[in-house]
C-alpha cells in the first residue's frame, strides 16, 4: 500500500537496533512531513558518514580527523590505557566522567566461531603505545569472546612491567558495557581487579 520509496525507507529504518516494523512505518511517514532543507541535511549527513568517519590512527576510536578528540586532549592521563572492543564502550565510559586515561579500541573481539582472530582486530598499534603506559585496564565485555580477548591481551603483556586489571565488580556475567548503567560502570572501573 505504500509507495516504493517509503517502503524502501521503512526497510532501511528496520535495520536500526530497536526499530520494529511499526516504528519504522511511523518514522518513515513522519519524515514525509519534514521540510525539504531538513531532509536534505539528513541525507547529506548519512552520505558523509561513510566518507568522513574513520578510526583514530592511534586508538581506533571513531573520528573525522587523523587523531580523535581524546588522543588530542593534553589533559588526559597518559599512564592508564583502557582497552575496549567498540567505540560505543568509550562513549559509555566517557559519559560517567570518572575516567581520565586513554583508550584503545579493538573494533571487535576474538571469536573463532566467526573466524575473527587477533590479526583482524586493532592490535597493531597497541604495542607502540605501551612505553608510557603504567596500567592496562581490560574492559572487554563479560561474554565468552570478551573473556577470550582479555586472556589474549594478558598473555601478550603480562611479561611487561605494567599492571593489568580487568573490570568486573558489579558487571554481571555476559554483560555488555554499552548497556550497563552509569553507576554500574563507575563501580566497575573503581573496583577493577588485578588480572
Ligand atoms: Zn584516538
Write the layout of secondary structure elements.
Layout (H helix, E strand, L loop, with lengths): L3 H10 L7 H11 L4 H17 L1 E2 L6 E2 L5 H4 L4 E8 L2 H10 L4 E5 L29 E4 L5 H14 L5 E4 L15 H9 L2 E2 L1
Parallel strand pairs: 3-4, 3-5, 5-6
Antiparallel strand pairs: 1-2, 6-7
Helix pairs in contact: 1-2, 5-7
Walk me through the structure.
- The protein is of the alpha/beta class and 195 residues long.
- The protein has two domains: 4-52, Helicase, Ruva Protein, domain 3; 62-194, Dna Topoisomerase Vi A Subunit, Chain: A, domain 2.
- Helix content is 38%, strand content 14%.
- The protein contains seven helices and seven strands.
- The protein has helices spanning 4-13, 21-31, 36-52, 69-72, 87-96, 144-157, 182-190, and strands at 54-55, 62-63, 77-84, 101-105, 135-138, 163-166, 193-194.
- The chain has a five-stranded mixed β-sheet with strand order 4-3-5-6-7.
- α5 (87-96) links the parallel β3 and β4 (101-105).
- α1 packs across α2.
- The longest helix is centred in the first third of the chain and has 17 residues, at 36-52.
- The chain starts with a helix and ends with a strand.
- The model has no long low-confidence stretch (mean pLDDT 90).
- Zinc ion (ZN) binds at residues 56, 58-59, 61, 67-68, 70-71.
